[in-house]
Specification:
It comes from Pararoseomonas baculiformis. The chain is an alpha/beta fold. Helix content is about 35%, strand content about 20%. It starts with a strand and ends with a helix.
């Protein structure tokens, strides 16, 4: 099923892009939020499993994918992303959604539970919690601001395999697809990031990672599944234990030996994630 391309504007006029797969309008739609250096296209395979049964919307943040680039660097602060998500939900007629958030998308999910608690019907947090492991901040810090200008997709794959060796991708074809979702050809014929690399400067200007413990507690009233890549650079075992303790009904699915972040296409995840979502009206 081919998604529709949606173009809406944030309240300050910045263009936002989303992919929109149709489905049963009587069921709560899925809102898919990608990681900080990822785009809506990451959810294409995931959406194919659920489109038709319910509507699926995947969003490009400001400065990512097909969304607009900002002239002002401060526009890339995380709090502005949360506002954009709410603006997009209003424009796309999503008053309520099951939010599937990978990494940064999971952080945004927690923030939304405080900013607009009525929006969330349920949530899937993909390898992220209220406390970010410093290893993850170091990893993204060296990656988000780097534009390598690769000459070929094979060069991109080799680089990604080096810096993200534990991403749970099964074979060379999956790595090539992952690289193609990360970089795109520029006017110079080289492969460049699908995001504005200035987001790294915005993250550095914002200081360290915030304490999202109160935001995570905003998810207590709703069904939540946590996917934990056991070798994650972002989500530590200690944080997982804290999350389970604070939300005893949290549904935890562990992916042994995997690093950040699962694609949601892993055989060990497909059935439990789909079963969880199928239980949500």
């Amino acid at each position: 099923m081919t998604p529709a391309t949606r173009r809406v504007t944030a309240r300050d006029g910045l263009a936002l892009h989303a992919l929109d797969w149709p489905g049963d309008e009587h069921r709560t739609p899925l809102l898919c939020l990608p990681g900080i250096c990822r785009t809506a296209r990451d959810f294409e395979l995931f959406a194919r499993r659920h489109a038709g049964r319910r509507r699926v919307v995947a969003l490009d943040y400001m400065g990512h994918g097909e969304s607009g680039r900002a002239a002002d660097l401060s526009r890339y602060r995380p709090e502005r992303a949360a506002g954009d998500i709410l603006d997009a939900c209003a424009a796309l007629h999503l008053p309520r959604a099951v939010v599937v958030g990978t990494s940064f998308g999971g952080l945004m999910t927690m923030v939304l539970s405080v900013l607009r608690p009525t929006l969330l019907r349920a949530a899937v947090l993909n390898d992220i919690g209220p406390e970010i492991d410093p290893r993850g901040l170091e990893l993204v810090g060296g990656f988000a601001g780097y534009d390598p200008g690769f000459r070929s997709i094979d060069d991109a794959v080799a680089y990604l395999r080096t810096i993200m060796p534990r991403v749970p991708l099964p074979d060379d074809e999956a790595w090539r697809r992952f690289a193609a979702l990360t970089y795109k050809p520029g006017e110079d014929g080289l492969l460049h990031p699908r995001w504005d690399t200035r987001i790294q400067q915005a993250m550095e200007a914002g200081g360290g990672a915030p304490d999202l413990g109160p935001a995570f507690r905003g998810l207590r009233p709703i069904p939540v599944m946590l996917i934990w890549a056991e070798a994650s650079e972002f989500l530590s075992a200690a944080t997982v234990r804290t999350m389970v303790r604070e939300k005893p009904d949290l549904e935890l699915v562990t992916l042994p030996g995997a690093g950040h972040a699962p694609t949601l296409e892993e055989p060990e995840l497909v059935q439990p994630v789909d079963d969880f979502l199928d239980r949500i009206p």
